[in-house]
C-alpha cells in the first residue's frame, strides 16, 4: 500500500530522530525499554522492529545482544537506522511484512498503529506480526491514548487556541487526531479497545502497560529525568502503577503485549 504523502512529508522533516532522545519524551523511551526488557525472550533472539524509525529502540536492543531487523516506510529513517552498528534496516509496511512465517522471536510495533486510522488496517498489522512470530513469541504494540491530546495541549499551553482545542476534543470522540499544521491523521485508542484488536488478529490474553502515567504531565518531569537517582525513583513509581486499570488512560502511551500461543 502506498504511503500517504502527508505522512512522508512530515517525517522527512526529521522530527522523529530526537523525539524520544530529548525532553520528556525520554520518559516514554525509558518506560518502553523497562517493560520490554522484562518481557522479551532472552538474547540472542531475533527481533523485528516494525516502524522502528531511526533506530532509537533498535540501538539498545542490539547493545543488549539481540539480532534486530528494522522496517520502516520512511526512507530517511531507514537510512539513519542502517548506520547503527548491528542493525539491519530496510523499507517495509506493517500491513505486509517481508518476513517468513514464524521466523522471529518478537515483533515490535512501536509506532505503526498510530497512523492506521482504519481498524481493519490495525488488525491486519497485528495479524502480520502474529504470522511472523514463532509460537510462544512476543508481539508488542504501542498506542496513543484517547485523552492524550487534551492532556498535551494543556501541558503545552496551546489549549486556549480554538483549533487546537477542537482537534483535541474531536480525537476524544472518534479517535482521529487532526493536529493543526501537522497534515495527517493519527489514531488515538481507547485503552479498552486494544485487546479486542489483538484478539481479532489471533493474539489472545493481551496485557496492557501504561507507559508514562501522570508523570509526563508534571511541570518538573525533565528535572526528574535529568537526575539519575530521581529518574530511577520515577521509573520505579510508574512500574508500580503500570497495570492499574483506572490509570491506563492517563498515560500518553500504552504498550500492549501478547504471545502467539498456537502452532504455525
Overall 3D shape: globular
CATH topology: Rossmann fold
Helix-strand string: HHHEHEHEEHEHHEEHEHHE
CATH superfamily: Vaccinia Virus protein VP39
Number of helices, counting only DSSP H or I runs of 4 residues or more: 11
Main sheet attributes: strand count, strand direction, barrel closure: 9 strands, mixed
Radius of gyration: 17 Å
Proportion of helical residues: 25-40%
Overall number of structural domains: 1
Number of strands: 9
CATH architect. name = 3-Layer(aba) Sandwich
Low-confidence stretches: none
Q: Approximately how much beta-strand content do the residues carry?
A: 15-25%
- The end-to-end span amounts to 26 Å
Q: What's the average pLDDT?
A: 94
Structural category is alpha/beta
| Assigned CATH class | Alpha Beta
Amino acid at each position: 500500500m502506498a504511503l500517504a504523502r502527508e505522512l512522508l512529508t512530515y517525517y522527512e522533516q526529521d522530527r522523529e530522530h530526537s523525539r524520544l532522545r530529548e525532553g520528556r519524551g525520554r520518559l516514554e523511551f525509558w518506560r518502553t525499554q523497562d517493560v520490554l526488557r522484562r518481557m522479551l525472550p532472552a538474547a540472542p533472539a531475533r527481533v523485528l522492529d516494525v516502524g522502528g524509525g531511526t533506530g532509537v529502540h533498535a540501538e539498545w536492543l542490539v547493545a543488549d545482544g539481540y539480532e534486530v531487523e528494522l522496517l520502516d516506510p520512511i526512507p530517511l529513517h531507514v537510512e539513519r537506522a542502517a548506520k547503527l552498528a548491528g542493525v539491519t534496516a530496510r523499507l517495509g509496511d506493517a500491513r505486509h511484512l517481508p518476513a517468513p512465517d514464524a521466523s522471529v522471536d518478537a515483533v515490535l510495533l512501536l509506532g505503526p498503529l498510530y497512523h492506521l486510522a482504519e481498524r481493519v488496517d490495525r488488525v491486519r498489522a497485528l495479524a502480520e506480526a502474529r504470522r511472523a512470530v514463532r509460537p510462544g513469541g512476543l508481539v508488542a504494540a504501542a498506542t496513543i491514548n484517547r485523552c492524550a491530546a487534551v492532556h498535551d495541549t494543556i501541558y503545552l499551553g496551546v489549549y486556549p487556541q480554538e483549533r487546537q482545542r477542537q482537534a483535541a476534543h474531536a480525537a476524544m470522540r472518534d479517535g482521529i487526531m487532526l493536529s493543526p499544521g501537522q497534515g495527517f491523521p493519527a489514531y488515538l485508542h481507547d485503552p479498552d479497545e486494544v485487546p479486542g484488536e489483538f484478539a481479532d488478529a489471533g493474539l489472545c490474553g493481551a496485557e496492557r502497560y501504561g507507559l508514562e502515567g501522570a508523570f509526563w504531565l508534571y511541570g518538573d518531569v525533565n528535572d526528574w529525568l535529568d537526575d539519575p537517582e530521581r529518574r530511577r525513583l520515577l521509573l520505579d513509581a510508574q512500574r508500580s502503577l503500570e497495570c492499574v486499570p483506572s490509570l491506563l488512560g492517563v498515560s500518553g502511551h500504552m504498550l500492549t503485549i501478547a504471545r502467539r500461543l498456537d502452532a504455525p
